[in-house]
Amino acid sequence: MTLVNDAAPAAVRTTGRRFRAYTAKHLDELTARAGLTAEQRLGTRAVATVLPFRTNSYVLDELIDWSAAPDDPIYRLVFPQEDMLPAEDVTRLSDLIRRDAPKAEIDALAHQVRMKLNPHPAGQLQLNIPSFNEEPMPGVQHKYNETVLFFPKQGQTCHAYCTYCFRWAQFVGEPDLKMAADDIDRLKRYLGSHPEVTSILFTGGDPMIMGEPVLRRYIEPLLEVEQIESIRIGTKALAYWPQRWVTDPDADDTLRLFEQVSNAGKNLAFMAHFTHPRELEPAMVSEAVRRIRDTGAVIRTQAPLIRTINDSPELWESMWRRQLRMGMVPYYMFIERDTGPQDYFAVTLERAYEVFRDAYKNVSGLCRTVRGPSMSATPGKVCVDGVVEVGGEKLFLLHFIQCRDPEFVNKPFFAKYDPAAKWLTDLRPAFGAERFPFEGIVPGGDTSAHDVAATGPSI
After folding, report:
1. For residues 437 and 418, what is the distance between their CA atoms, to the nearest angstrom?
2. Interval 47-97: pLDDT, tens
3. A GO molecular-function term, please (predicted)?
4. In this structure, what is the dihedral angle of CA atoms 26, 32, 35, 39, given to the nearest 10 degrees?
5. Letter string b/e over residues 115-145, b meaning 16 or more CB atoms within 10 A of that residue's CB
6. pLDDT, tens digit, 9 for 90 and up, residues 195-221
7. How many C-beta neighbours within 10 Å does residue 249 have?
8. From residue 411, how far is each of 167, 268, 369, 408 by CA, in Å?
9. Strand pairing partners for 54?
10. What's the sign of the alpha-carbon dihedral 195, 219, 58, 331?
11. Does 445 have pLDDT greater than 60?
């Protein structure tokens, strides 16, 4: 079945280039290219002291329409915006930068602002990190019975950062906020004591930032674990650096590793993040998709619904249709998580449902593999199924796609209609109930979803 030695078309090969990253030190010149004034550029730099910025030459040259910047959706996808944070915080940080304050002073204020942004939502650090032999396993999360998340140490960066990213805390240089692990043998021993686990998700950051030899060190040992049915790789690299599978020096070796997973009888699920239809247009992407699929891997696509970037049904319909034509499987539309600049990017739950419904109704059944709009909240993945009227009362209808307690999976529940609600913790139970049925299921006590949200940083 191997096709990894097939040469890429000449037109695609000639667009290959060495990876070049652009970071905060390049912000001023890049935002000037977008037409920002000096004061606007200063505000952008201020935001970048709190939230991460990194992009690359492919994104700048192939994806951004500079004639439409700064309103271009791909520009907004990767460049910080000065109004992403409260104005008073941006002003204070801008003043420090303007007077060339010591780095330690700027860093201290940036840290204060970060701590107000719920850097690890939905109990990632408090509720999801498992223990083995009475010792915690940093860089590992086990929220749902069947699936373990692993954060490979060398994969905790990306080819470019998305401004909405809910994992932004991984990239800001604060060790206490970062999740990373490199002991794959300990993971194997943990799996031996948890036979219910059938799927491993490599996440980050972006595991595909790693070269093939490092990636192999993590993946190959898991091929010996009989209970594992699927290995998943969560990545944005197909959108931000498709050269990884076409013209990079280790592209063929990486594809052979993918084949090895398939040949070992495991499902290799390639979880590709595409946020906007333009990310699918370059020929390099089509070629990378072809080569990955030829290894036996299944590419599933997912992204959050983001205000000012992809908050229209026409864009989602276009994405799902094109992904299907390319042989990918539409998988998830997410709701922007309650972290970072959520207020800047999130739409209401009602609007999220309308966008999903209006896109979904216009695609064929083969595209209707997609699920959503979904919130990855503290108790589980909650899908908004619509706004309904029951007994004269307007309500949200919801259900769990996945849950800490599997007994709640696929069971519908209702919440009072709230036109301003953007997240699960904004909702209240319907029909006069004091609690939702699932409240109290989080480990360690009878804690409600609202109480967890109120305690501070909490997936």
Report:
1. 19
2. 999 999 999 999 999 999 999 999 999 999 999 999 999 999 999 999 999
3. catalytic activity
4. 100
5. eebbbbbbbbbbbbbeebeeeebebbbbbbe
6. 999 999 999 899 999 999 999 999 999
7. 9
8. 29, 29, 19, 6
9. 23
10. negative
11. no
Mean pLDDT value across residues 272-301 = 98
Q: Which region, left, alpha or beta, applies to residue 386 given φ > 0 means left and ψ of -120 to 50 means alpha?
A: left
Query: Mutual orientation of helices 103-114 and 87-98 as an angle, nearest 10°?
Result: 170
SS (H, E, C) the chain: CCCCCCCCCHHHHCCCCCCCEEEHHHHHHHHHHCCCCHHHHHHHHHHHCCCCCEEEHHHHHHHCCCCCCCCCHHHHHHCCCCCCCCHHHHHHHHHHHHCCCCHHHHHHHHHHHHCCCCCCCCCHHHHCCCEECCEECCCEEEEECCEEEECEHHHCCCCCCCCCCCCHHHHCCCHHHCCCECCHHHHHHHHHCCCCCCEEEECCCCHHHCCHHHHHHHHHHHHHCCCCCEEEEEECHHHHCHHHHCCCCCHHHHHHHHHHHHHCCCEEEEEEECCCHHHHCCHHHHHHHHHHHCCCCEEEEEEEECCCCCCCHHHHHHHHHHHHHCCCEEEEEEECCCCCCHHHHCCCHHHHHHHHHHHHCCCCCCCCCCEEEEEECCCEEEEEEEEEEECCEEEEEEEEEEECCHHHECCEEEEECCCCCCCHHHCCECCCCCCCCCCCCCCCCCCCHHHHHHCCCCC
The pLDDT value recorded for residue 400 is: 97
Residue 368's CB: how many other CB atoms inside 10 A? Answer: 12
Cβ partners under 8 Å of residue 421, min gap 6: 348, 349, 350, 396, 415, 427
**pLDDT confidence tier of residue 447, bands split at 50, 70 and 90:** very low
Q: How many residues does the chain have?
A: 459
Residue 338 CB neighbours (<10 A) = 24
Mean pLDDT calculated for residue range 352-371:
97
